[in-house]
Amino acid sequence: MSHNLFNTLQTFNPTEGKEGKYYSLPQLEKEGIGAISRLPISIRIVLESVLRNYDGKKVAEKDVRAVANWGATAERTEEIPFVVARVILQDFTGVPLLVDLAAMRSAVAKIGKDTGLIEPLVPVDLVIDHSVQVDYAGSEEAYQKNLEIEFIRNEQRYRFLKWGTQAFNGFGVIPPGIGIVHQVNMEYLAKCVWQKDGVYYPDTLVGTDSHTTMINGLGVVAWGVGGIEAEAGMLGQPVYFLTPDVVGVNLTGKLKEGVTATDLVLRVTEMLRAAKVVGKFVEFHGEGATSLPATDRATIANMAPEYGATMGFFGIDEKTCEYFAATGRTQEEVDTIRSYYTAQEMFGIPNAGEVDYSVVLDLDLSTIVPAVAGPKRPQDRIEITELKEKFAELFSSASGYNKSSDEFPHRYIAKMNTNGHALPMYGQKQIGVEEAEIGHGDVLIAAITSCTNTSNPSVMLAAGLLAKKAAERGMKVSATVKTSLGPGSRAVTTYLEKTGLQQYLNEVGFNLVGYGCTTCIGNSGPLEPGIEKAIVENDIVAASVLSGNRNFEARVHQNIKANFLMSPPLVVAFALAGTVNKNLSVEPIGKDKDGEDVFLKDIFPTLEEVSALMQSAFDAETYRKLYSEFAEENPLWNNIPSSVGQVYEWDAESTYIQEPPYFEGFTMEAGKFADIKGARALAIFGDSVTTDHISPAGSIKPSSPAGIYLQEKGVSVADFNSYGSRRGNDQVMLRGTFANVRIKNLMVAPKEGGFTIQQPTGEEASIYDAAMKYKADNIPTVIFGGQEYGTGSSRDWAAKGTMLMGVKAVITQSFERIHRSNLVGMGVLPLQFKDGTNAQSLGINGTETFDLIGLETGDIKPRQDVTLVIHRTDGTSENVSLTLRIDTPIEVEYYQHGGILPFVLRQLLSK
Questions:
Q1: What is the rounded CA–CA span in Å between residue 120 and residue 118?
Q2: Which residues of the chain have pLDDT under 70?
Q3: Shared domain check, 556 and 691
Q4: pLDDT score for 418
């Protein structure tokens, strides 16, 4: 039921002649509740949700007053109950979420209660975009063949998702072959304004993918959460978070010739990561922000996880409305956006000084220069003029690859396909090639991929124009480079074909491989076996170039060590050059058909050339057609059979979908905080351990615990698929936790991979095997980490796997936001060393036992102190004070209940 707290339920005209209701933020200011007009736009949108959802229970009047009186530099102690308008999922994270919902239904059925209690209360959309792999590339048939393989590999998962669409109301699935979740969100799912029962309100959401923030570029408040938190949100629970700092970024000036939106976002990422914006809102404003098109704003918003912010937000203005109109939204929808935000006095991006921010940073767009980022982190920006020098430095430095500089120029022979038939992953390109030379710095993977850039027509058209100029001069990419084009939606193919540019991308080697997250998430597929063999045998430091947002170790391909993010046109340029060991600002990319040198400046498109084609990228009717026909035009999806019914019939033989153990022995009684005694260190890590290191991701090695398990289940190595595709099976995922080939457990240094030392025997074992032995012996375990533990994708299994291994606490110097929240959501204690202290300074080496004291007080407070007692083998002990990183009162309850899911289930059943 609607309310009228502070006389805020007002009327406005969404379109001419139509009346609607809304909760007026200007009215709050008139009532003297707070200086609303000075609040950041992002805070105002959160405030509207708190005000509209006021019920005196979940959302109290004090919550409305607290957000309305947000202070730019106030201490952050207030917890905001934020109710979102909708939830968005991708299939890798969405499948385990649906598994958990199905398990909740099964748990309810087992205790004889109404299974209909478990139902999404807000719209939920799942976009299948993470399952396509680049098995085929470099040929016209690559797209269709990759799609067919995807359906063969993932039929069990897709049958389960189809069951979900009929079992739950408001749960929709967009099938494979349509696009990347974030680009589909921008082009189709986002509304900017929703309406229910005559009340209009802003589009807000959480998503189970860290790059959910891309939609911030259209003025939508949204961020990535773990699936466990998203489940709570879709079951009617508010998403709780501490009132954030809001960092204002005042953009001035304009981008120069030869500079792309990608170059801009790499500079923003470098700048904001250095400014330590982790856990904060970032809001872009000023004349420079106003001048950017919506697609450039979305590119910047997309990489908020890379600069560490909760959001990278742009307000709604006329350019937002233009984007919605150009992508096929109705005139009524566009008019409603303009009318609603005007009524709320939020239409238009603020100028410098008009809004209060916690701190303001300035960035002049005219200072941006072409750049790349890498080779291991997206914030490590390298100007293109310095890449050659930087790579050479990293090659021989202790902080880089630590190899002899004498080895740098050496070339190695790779024995290629010699039977005259094309290998599947390379299409036509390999025929007749018997051997090739490869060396350090060679580009072996070149991918135009990822939502970050494929959603932005300016950089995609630039890539096509560069390919056109190169093709016209007879240039082609070497057969040793695996090239791929994975757009974020079919709209990209439409405008590339309409402008005639797809033909030239094909000619140089960038054929369509699929619509989905490919190389950026590790779905790059296999390299040619001869090349892979040469890399491994000679320890070659080879490179990938991609237009993505993530380049963590072993993410793109486990044997490609140097991975560089860059704009799509630069991906094409470096693919043609075949190496990162060139300064493309002064050295030629290569030679043309006449033997003449071709320089980057010769073929890089001008802003004018790109602008002339931009209109082709936005045809409203094309977008309407593409998004109205995807169900009918997907025979592979339509032919998949599915079970029916409210409760899922679990198949004990399935290696993809299994009932998880989270509700075993479920009762209505919550647990209690307890001290942890006699714990062992399962692993001791250094800085920047990512969720890619922790969570099972990428390919499954046959010799790994997960590989051995699958083979025991009768799955051939060829049918392993990826960890991501098997997230619905806890047995596979548990065995793959902490199994990344590049993870560095200091207990077994310098050895890399998922190994540890089992105590007290001192024997080396896989982390999985050691964890299972400790569990069997009822010995609790802890994990130690350094700075920025858990950075990267919002991978549930980084927390789920940690919990299922029996880890009771994770003790680090600092946490990334989502992973810390996920640990609490799974009932694992996150604890933080005080400044200046870490596992190394304390001399912790894994031979010790540990107690965590101060948890049995009965009155646990967020961020209170807890004592770590270190018992050393020489009989001495040391007490160390830690901060309990349970940050909010609701998280105290989550932990007591054993996590979010048991908490929500008990709440629903108690009604």
A1: 7
A2: 1, 417-433, 793-794
A3: no
A4: 44
In a domain, 701, yes or no: yes
Question: Domain with 517 in it: what CATH number?
Answer: 3.30.499.10
pLDDT in tens, 493-547: 999 999 999 999 999 999 999 999 998 888 898 888 889 999 999 999 999 999 9
Q: How far is Cα 165 from Cα 168, in angstroms, rounded to an integer?
A: 6
Residue 434 domain-assigned (yes or no): yes
Q: Answer yes or no: do 471 and 548 share one domain.
A: yes
pLDDT at 430: 47
Which amino acid is residue 827, in one-letter code?
G
Q: Give the neighbor-by-neighbor strand order of the sheet with 171-174.
A: 171-174, 124-127, 86-90, 204-207, 221-224
307 within domain boundaries: no
CB 817 within 8 A of CB 229: no
Q: Which residue, 69, 85, 110, sits at the end of a domain?
A: 69
The residue segments making up the domain with residue 863 are: 665-910
DSSP characters for 206-219?
Answer: EESSGGGGGGGGGT
At 831 the pLDDT is 98
Beta strands in 322-418 (DSSP E): 359-364, 371-373, 381-383, 411-415
CATH of the domain at 733: 3.20.19.10
As a whole number of angstroms, the distance between CA 250 and CA 244 comes to: 19
Nearest to 175 by CA among 131, 209, 127: 127
Element (H, E) at 290: helix 287-291
Q: How many domains does the chain have?
A: 3
Q: What ranges in 518-606 are assigned the alpha helix state H?
A: 529-538, 568-577, 600-603
CA separation for the pair 649, 633 (Å, rounded):
29
Give the pLDDT score at 420.
34
pLDDT computed for residue 433 by the predictor: 59
Q: Which residues pair with 204 in a beta bridge?
A: 221
Q: Do 206 and 224 touch, CB atoms closer than 8 A?
A: yes
φ, ψ (nearest 5 deg) of residue 611: -60, -35
Structure tokens at 240: 């709780």
Nearest to 102 by CA among 231, 225, 206: 231
C-alpha–C-alpha distance, residues 18 and 21, integer Å: 11
Q: Which of 558, 582, 605 is the last residue of a domain?
A: 605
For residue 372, what are the β-bridge partners? 382
Q: Is residue 231 part of a domain?
A: no
% helix, strand, coil for the chain, step of 5: 40, 20, 45
For 758-825, give the DSSP string: ETTTTEEEEHHHHHHHHHHTT--EEEE--TTBTBSS--HHHHHHHHHTTEEEEEES-B-HHHHHHHHH
User: How far is it, in rounded angstroms, from Cα 552 to Cα 557?
Assistant: 10
Do the beta carbons of residue 839 and residue 784 sit within 8 Å? yes
Give the integer Cα–Cα distance in Å for 900 and 662.
11
Cα dist from 439 to 398, 642, 857, whole Å = 20, 49, 61
